[in-house]
Design brief:
Elements: H1 2-9, H2 19-45, H3 55-63, E1 68-70, E2 73-75, H4 91-119, H5 122-154, H6 157-169, H7 211-221, H8 228-245, H9 254-272, H10 277-292, H11 299-332, E3 337-342, H12 346-357, E4 362-368, H13 374-385, E5 388-393, H14 397-401, E6 406-410, E7 413-414, E8 420-423, H15 426-435, E9 440-443, H16 480-488, E10 497-500, E11 507-509, E12 514-515, H17 520-526
Parallel strand pairs: 3-4, 3-6, 4-5, 6-9, 9-11
Antiparallel strand pairs: 1-2, 7-8, 8-10, 11-12
Helix pairs in contact: 7-8, 7-9, 8-10, 8-11, 10-11, 11-12
Family: Belongs to the eIF-2B alpha/beta/delta subunits family.
Biased composition (Basic and acidic residues): 1-19, 31-41, 147-163
Protein name: Translation initiation factor eIF2B subunit delta
């Protein structure tokens, strides 16, 4: 087929031309006719004056028909019709001419740059780019400095004086202090105040403080009275002595004067040792009872009502509640149990002695820990009652936990989020019990429940005497750590309490019932204690 088509196209006619040649001639004739018609129309509309040339003709004359060379680089020719004067063109044609001029100039620049870049090596191109970037950065810096200088020049000297006065009024910034061994103080020490012995407070507001509170403050600071129940009972006994001995001055109410004296006494106790949750709850109840009493009643009747309230609180909230808790725990203790306890708790001691007196056969493992070593006193009291006991240090807890059947612990306070605040080391025992899948029972009276929420032991805690940590009971000579700490001035942190999460505790035994840890808000709603 292709050979036949070629033979037809190559046939020569009578005029001596092939088909292709005839078509090409026809197309040329049409184009020449169209060009002539356009030239006639342009000449009719506008004819240039003598001696004038259109801008297009001038530009084309300057450039010439041949390609122009710039810096040895060939520039492409821009073909623009010379015979069209600019004045006779329409707006579209003028825009088209301007756009073609721009394109031509951009092409020329790009061609020059590409030719130059092709001549340079890669390292030279990188160096060139770096020079351009550095020049741009310097230009930016110069503009910024100029702007700042202009702003400073615009500010009046009066405003400058005001600014200087304002900066002087602000306190100076305190940088983080460094220890003498070069390390920065840890942020964990920030919530705690420095430990101060009670001798520093023995001359503070003593004239208006009852001797019972002075004696109590010394016993608190020396740790002769430990445990939340013991501290609360001793505080209420001191309150009863204060109420009995109080004499109101003339023209003053008994309740108002008692509030003033009580505020000074409690502030002294707070300085000796921070108050426990049980003490604060008892004080709040006592103050609420004081405000409810009618002021028109004689002083002796007010004293009688307050003393009756103190006696009923000790009997109902502490003693009777402890008896109810011991009866509930007694149901959970069976013959042959090995019960693990920690530290010395008056409530736990009462529970175990009553269980032993009810002919229950069990063994007790007392876990002790430094620096207070309360477990030794607990061991002495239980062995005196005839209970089979063994004492273990807290570092040997893992070796004993396998034989334990139940863990019974005391509590300093029970928080709203279900966490248990108790003596330092309780969370470690609860964690070990969870690892060995042993039940953990926490015994706590409802008057110790608190509305405070605490997720760890660093938010709020009580700091003890750091020198107790440096005691060495095995040698008569002083501990070598004391001399080193004095030379390097090291600080030791002695935290008295820790916080145990709710998921590590099986149940909380109260005088109301055996409850989960998460039931604290319900108990606080039911109980009339406003904590």
């Amino acid at each position: 087929m292709d050979k036949k088509k070629q033979s037809k196209e190559e046939k020569v006619g009578a005029d001596g031309l092939t088909k292709k040649e005839r078509r090409a001639l026809k197309v040329q004739a049409r184009q020449t006719d169209d060009n002539k018609a356009e030239q006639k129309n342009i000449r009719q509309h506008s004819v240039p004056k003598n001696g004038e040339k259109s801008e297009i003709n001038q530009n084309m004359a300057e450039k010439g028909s041949e390609n122009v060379t710039e810096n040895g680089v060939i520039v492409e020719e821009v073909k623009v019709p010379l015979d069209k004067p600019e004045s006779g063109l329409s707006m579209k044609e003028k825009r088209k001419l301007e756009w073609e001029k721009k394109l031509a100039s951009v092409k020329n620049e790009n061609n020059i740059e590409t030719k130059c870049d092709q001549q340079l090596s890669k390292s030279e191109q990188k160096a060139k780019r770096r020079e351009i970037q550095e020049a741009q950065r310097l230009a930016k810096k110069n503009t910024v400095t100029k702007n700042t200088e202009e702003l400073n020049s615009k500010i009046s000297p009066e405003n400058k004086k005001i600014d200087s006065a304002a900066t002087k009024s602000f306190p100076a910034k305190h940088t983080c202090s460094k220890r003498f061994d070069g390390s920065i103080l840890s942020p964990l020490q920030m919530p705690f105040r420095d430990y101060k012995p009670v001798e520093l407070y023995d001359s503070v507001c003593l004239p208006n403080i009852h001797p019972a509170f002075i004696e109590l403050g010394v016993q608190y600071s020396s740790k002769t009275i430990l445990g939340s129940n013991a501290r609360c009972i001793s505080l209420l006994c001191a309150l009863s002595r204060l109420v009995k001995d109080l004499r109101t001055p003339p023209e003053q109410e008994f309740s108002r004067y008692l509030e003033l004296v009580l505020q000074k006494s409690t502030s002294y106790l707070q300085k000796c040792r921070p108050m426990s949750v049980s003490m604060t709850n008892a004080l709040k109840l006592f103050k609420s009872q004081l405000t409810q009493i009618d002021s028109n009643i004689p002083d002796e009747d007010i004293k009688k009502k307050l003393l009756d309230f103190i006696d009923t609180f000790i009997h109902d909230e502490i003693l009777t509640a402890g008896k109810a808790i011991s009866l509930k725990v007694l149901e959970k203790i069976s013959n042959g149990d090995i019960i693990l306890i920690y530290g010395c708790s008056s409530l736990i001691k009462r529970i175990l002695i009553e269980a032993f007196e009810s002919k229950k056969q069990f063994k007790v493992i007392v876990v002790d820990n430094r620096p207070l070593t309360e477990g030794v006193e607990m061991l002495r009291r239980l062995t005196k009652a005839g209970i089979d006991c063994t004492c273990v240090s807290i570092n040997g807890l893992r070796y004993v936990m396998a034989s334990v059947t139940k863990i019974v612990l005391g509590a300093h306070s029970l928080l709203t989020n279900g966490y248990v605040m108790s003596r330092a080391g309780t969370s470690l025992i609860a964690l070990a019990a969870k690892a060995f899948n042993r039940p953990v029972l926490v015994c706590c009276e409802t008057y110790k429940f608190s509305e405070r929420v605490q997720a760890d032991s660093l938010v709020y805690n009580e700091i003890g005497d750091p020198d107790i940590l440096l005691k060495d009971d095995t040698l008569n000579n002083p501990s070598p750590m004391k001399s080193r700490s004095k030379k390097r001035r090291r600080k030791f942190l002695n935290l008295l309490y820790d916080v145990t999460p709710a998921f590590l505790i099986t149940a909380v035994v109260t005088e109301l019932a055996i409850l989960p840890c998460t039931s604290v808000p319900v108990v606080l709603r039911v109980k009339p204690i406003e904590i």
